[in-house]
Amino acid sequence: MGDTQQIIEKPNVVNPRTALCTVGEELGDIFRANGVDEAKMGLRTSLTKKEKLTDNQIKRACRLLNQGESLATYLRNFQKEYERKSKLASAAYKKAKKNYARLKGVLPLLKNEFEDGLDRLDDILDFFGVDSEEEVFAGADSAAALFRKQNNVRVDPVNLKAWLRRGELDFQKMNIGEYDAQALRKWIEGREWQRIIDSADDFLKLPEKLMEFGVALVFVPFIPRTVYGAVRWFDGKPLVQVSDRDKDLATCWFTLFHELGHVLLHHNEEILDGELNDKGGNTRRKEKEANKFANEILFNGDNLRKEVFSRSHDTLSASYLAAKYDVPRLLASYWLIKAQYQPYFQVRKQVDFALFYQ
Ligand SMILES: [Zn+2]
């Protein structure tokens, strides 16, 4: 090996059977304790690996150790018990592997913070703060039930639970003061944020700013079949989670203001947003209110969107819309992109929360 460091991969799931002591190992210990050379057994394979001894082998061991029926009974019971435990262990292993397959998608969200487990499955349980996979699945089902009540799209319950859990863990690390709705509203309406609208780097620094108003803003990378954003409340403090779904800065701004709308308008209510600005007839009241809030702040109302979707012009540029509606160009493009309006001419700004997870 030289001085090359060998990196030992942690197993996904440890087979509990490997921890069981075989009758051969047990007998080997007895031989050693009595100063008897196990080679006298005359076995062709190693004694340690023996999961079962024949009657003749047991008799031979008793003779070598000068023992009678009591050792023979002990060894027979030992291997019977081993067989029972081994069957249970195999079943547990099979089940754990199946559970791991359902859970492994959340591994990147562990952010290398959970590494003390025997195997990766253990690390995942530590991340969720539970003792069994069943607890994860039960918690996931209740989050998914709330999601379905609020959304019309499909969800992956385990992914959603993990995405939310990541937010809680980051929230616990933040030192958030009292929530101040007035100060939050003042900052939003003061439009100081418009100066940094084009900068993904500055967007990523917003959590520091929002902490001043007792709002916890956490960016968690999108994982499949989860949400654009969420708002939950802990001890009267809002936890706002935004995902980088679409990897688009303008979309992130929209999600942020949509969620801040929920914070200001729907105090203490838990919201999971699987869709955004969905103009379908099924949009619930609270969603309409949060969309209206975001549209008012970001686009000075709904007319820009209407003009884009009416397609009354053969060409529509972001600059034209920006000037007409007094909005930043990046935000004017948001609707042009949504409407697939001359897509080759629309400029997107990339944003990627995975940067924090490398
Ligand atoms: Zn919403």
Using brief descriptors, characterize the structure shown:
2 domains; mainly alpha; 358 residues; binds zinc ion; 4-stranded mixed β-sheet; 14 helices; 50% helix
Describe this structure in words.
This protein is mostly helical. It folds into two domains: 16-102, no CATH class; 133-357, no CATH class. It has 14 helices and four strands. The site of zinc ion (ZN) has 6 residues, from α10, β4 and α11.
Class by alpha and beta content: mainly alpha
* Poorly predicted runs: none
On the 0 to 100 scale, the average pLDDT is 93
Number of DSSP-assigned strands: 4
Number of helices: 14
Compile the SSE list and pairings.
Layout: H1 23-33, H2 55-64, H3 69-103, H4 120-128, H5 133-150, H6 157-173, H7 181-190, H8 200-203, H9 206-211, E1 216-219, E2 229-234, E3 237-242, H10 249-265, E4 271-273, H11 285-299, H12 303-310, H13 318-325, H14 329-338
Helix pairs in contact: 2-3, 5-6, 10-11, 13-14
Zinc ion is lined by residues 258, 262, 271, 273, 287, 290.
